[in-house]
Amino acid sequence: MAKNVLFLGVKGELLEAVVELLSEVYSCSDLGVDVNAALSRLEEQVPDLYVIHESVLGEEVTTDLISSVHSVYRTPVLLISDNNSVSDSEDIYHMNSGFKDPVSVKYMIDTILSFGQKEKAIKEELNMYKVQVEELSETNAHLITATFRERSLKKELEASKALIEEQSKKILDSINYSLRIQQSIIPADSVFSEALGDHFVYYRPKDVVSGDFPWMLCKDRYVYFAAVDCTGHGVPGAMMSMIGNLLLNAIVLNGSYSKSPAEILLELHHSVVSTLKQDAEGNKAADGMDAALCRIDFETGELLFSGAHLPLFLLRNGELEVFKGDKFPVGGMQYRNRNSYSDHVIQLQKGDRVFVFSDGIIDQVGGPEKMKWMSASLREFISVNANLSMEELKEEVHRVFEEYKGDNKQVDDVLLIGLQYP
């Protein structure tokens, strides 16, 4: 499809010669000096380029016209004027009215139209790196005014690409280092095995680092373990996970007795509020975490569960029972002075299976209908695969999750912890 070039205020032999040179490739229209016709033409079809002669139309009329053409419709403008200054806009191209050679005008038009798409693709890439946007836009604006624009732009883009790659490497190195720190505070699988026995931890961050984290700690004869889902994911979520992990350790280890999960969650809530100064006047931050927290006594088989939004699934003799968490998150002031958590007492029997998880697995979009997997699907999955060992169940979780997700993006961090009582 031929590109549309509209001329406004360009007169005489220059116009005729330029149109003759362009007509084989472009669709050219001369609107004379009729500004209203130019604006009406925009409503019918937005051209690829406006060529405007400022000295014919006058500076004030030209300024108003460019405002409509460029600001509203984002149409590039080649402004022929006596003023050699460069516009603040990267899509306003200047050419001195002293250039009377039609070939020079055609070259300028060819350059603008042929490099418009390349420039757009480059900008989309550079927008991913905010630190480079302003620098590259300024560079492009200056390069546009040069008659050897193509060669100069290529050099600048190569330099910018190298700089972006360097910045990207630094960012990735920092994130990978953050991952090593986060992994260091999560108990190793061997530690989980020694404390929980027959179990699995299915842990799949959405990004490199995660806002979800599995937590486990032993005190006296009790084993505490939890699935914790912090606000956000990626780096912000990982920062919250570090706070949550350290606070949980401190709360459980401090004190002369072994606290119940409900007591721990309440103390964790107050600690998050205090740490993030959420009780300060004017602070409306609601950052916090959801959690499914358990305390198990393997000698007596007693399990205490308390949840902040998150539930616990118990599979016994093929029947699955759901223990719901309380409808209050940990942290935030949206439920000021109303956050309270309750303990569920479960007397475990041989062969019982216990599952706690973050909502990332049930919120995953996929399948032929592009729907969330939902809690009911997870309950059915656990019941149907009751004959599998815990290790086999972990592998099956991964297979089913990947199959359901398909080509869709992972929507959130995923964490599922399961154990079987001996």
Describe the protein's architecture and organization.
This protein has helices at 12-22, 35-44, 54-57, 59-72, 102-126, 130-144, 149-185, 189-196, 234-253, 261-275, 374-384, 390-405; strands at residues 4-8, 27-30, 49-53, 77-81, 92-96, 199-204, 212-219, 222-230, 289-297, 302-308, 312-316, 319-323, 344-347, 353-357, 365-366, 371-372, 414-420. It has a five-stranded parallel β-sheet with strand order 2-1-3-4-5, with helices on both faces. The chain has a five-stranded antiparallel β-sheet with strand order 6-17-14-11-12, with helices on both faces. It has a five-stranded antiparallel β-sheet with strand order 7-8-9-10-13, sandwiched between helices. The protein has twelve helices and 17 strands. Helices cover 44% and strands 22% of the residues. It is an alpha+beta fold and 422 residues long. It folds into three domains: 4-126, Response regulator (Rossmann fold, 3-Layer(aba) Sandwich); 130-185; 186-420, 4-Layer Sandwich (Phosphatase 2c, domain 1).
In short:
With 422 residues, this protein is of the alpha+beta class. The chain is built from 12 helices and 17 strands. It has 3 domains: 4-126, Response regulator (Rossmann fold); 130-185; 186-420, PPM-type phosphatase domain (Phosphatase 2c, domain 1, 4-Layer Sandwich), CATH 3.60.40.
